[in-house]
Amino acid sequence: MTSKQHTAEHGSRLEPVNGHPNLGVAHHPPRITDGVQAAERTAERQVAGWFILSMIGTVWFMFSYFFFSPESNAMGEIKIQNMMFGIGATVALGSIGIGIVLWAKTLMSDAEIAEDRHEIAGTEEDQAIALEILNQAKEESGIARRPLLRNTLIAAVAMAPLPAILVFRDLGPLPGDKLFNTLWGPGVRLVQDPGGVPHEERFIKAEDVTIGSAFHVIPEGMHEAEHPLDEKAKAAVLLMRIDPKELNIDPAKESWGVDGIVAYSKICTHVGCPVALYEHQTHHLLCPCHQSTFDVTEHCKVIFGPAKRPLPQLPIAVDDEGYLVAQRDFPEPVGPTFWEINTRETSEA
Predict the structure, then answer these.
(1) DSSP, residue by residue, 140-189
(2) Distances in whole angstroms, Cα of residue 99 to Cα of each of 59, 92, 120, 140, 148
(3) pLDDT tens-digit profile of 140-171?
(4) How many CA atoms lie within 13 A of 329 on its CB side?
(5) How many CA atoms lie within 13 A of 82 on its CB side?
(6) 3-state DSSP call for residue 300?
C-alpha cells in the first residue's frame, strides 16, 4: 500500500503545502458489496437487470413503430405512437444510464487517492504508465471478470441505435428523377403567386413585366393538383425583366427568355430555402437562409455563399395572346444538390 493510498483510506495528514495544511482525502468506509459476496452478486444482477430492461425498451420502441397507427390520438391531440416512442426511448436510454451509475456506485473500486500533478509528456515510459492505468481501470471496474455485466451492457448499447433505422426508413428513397418533373410543361402559362390567398388566376403578359420588376410565379392550374403545396415547393419561380444589354446570355440558352424577361427556380440549390430577395441595382438574387447570392445577368451563377450550382432556368416564351408560357419543364432538377445532378440532354433545349 502506498503512502497516498494509506492517506486516502485512513485519513492521516500529509505534509503542509506552501504553509497550508494538506488534509489529503477524507476517510471513506467500505461498502457492503466490498466484503459480502452475496451482496456483490445481488448488485451484479441488479445492474444486469437494468441493461436487460434497456433492451426491452428498445424492442418496445420497434414494436410501437409497427403496432400503433401514426394517426391515432390519445388524450386530445397527443399521438399514441409518439407517446409509445417516448416511453420506449426513455426506458432504453435511461436504463443504460442507471445501470452504469449503479455499477460504478456498488461494484467498481471507489478508493480515493491524492496524486501530485506532473507534466504530461509522450515518452514511451508515459505510454507504458497509461497502459497500466487502463489495465488497472479494467480490473477495478470488473468488466473483464464480470461477463454477465459486460455482455448485457454490450447487448443493450448495441440494440439502442436500432430504432434509428426505423426512423431513417421514413425518410424514403432518394428523389431520383422526381425533381425533374414539375407542373411546368409546353404551353403552361405563368401565374402570379397569390401568396396563399385563393382568387382567380392572374396570367402575366410580357408587356406587364417592366424593367426592374420581379414576380413570384407558379404554374397555371397548380391549385387543382393532388398535392398543390408539394408541387409549389418544386415549381415556384421568380420572373424578372432586365435590360437585354446587361445580360450575358449563353448562346445555347438564347431562346429561353423574352426580350430581357427571364425566369429562374425560386428554390435555393443549397438547402431549398425560397430565394425571394431581388436587388434591382445589382441584379442579384439573395437567399435569406444562408446568404447564397446568384447573379441573374450570368444565368444565376453563384457569386457568394454555400450554394454550389446556379438556379435552374425555366425556358419561357409568349403565346398567341401575349401571355408568358413555359416552353417545357426545367432542364435540370430543382432544389438542393444532395445527390448527383444529371442535366437533361442539350438537344431538348
Answers:
(1) HHTTTT-HHHHHHHHHHHHHTTHHHHHHHHTT-S--TTGGG--S--TTPB
(2) 18, 11, 33, 17, 13
(3) 877 777 888 888 989 998 998 888 877 777 77
(4) 16
(5) 8
(6) coil
The phi, psi pair for 136, rounded to 5°, reads: -65, -40
Q: What is the pLDDT of residues 183-214, one digit of tens each?
A: 999 999 999 987 655 556 789 999 999 998 88
Q: What is the identity of the amino acid at 178?
A: K
Residue 301 confidence (pLDDT) above 90: yes
Cα 233–Cα 237–Cα 238 angle in degrees, nearest 5: 135
**CB atoms < 10 A from the CB of 346, how many?**
9
- Going through 200-257 in order, the beta strands assigned E by DSSP cover 214-219, 237-241
Domains contained in the chain, CATH given: 3-169 (no CATH), 178-348 (2.102.10.10)
Q: Which grid cell sits at 39? A: 451482496
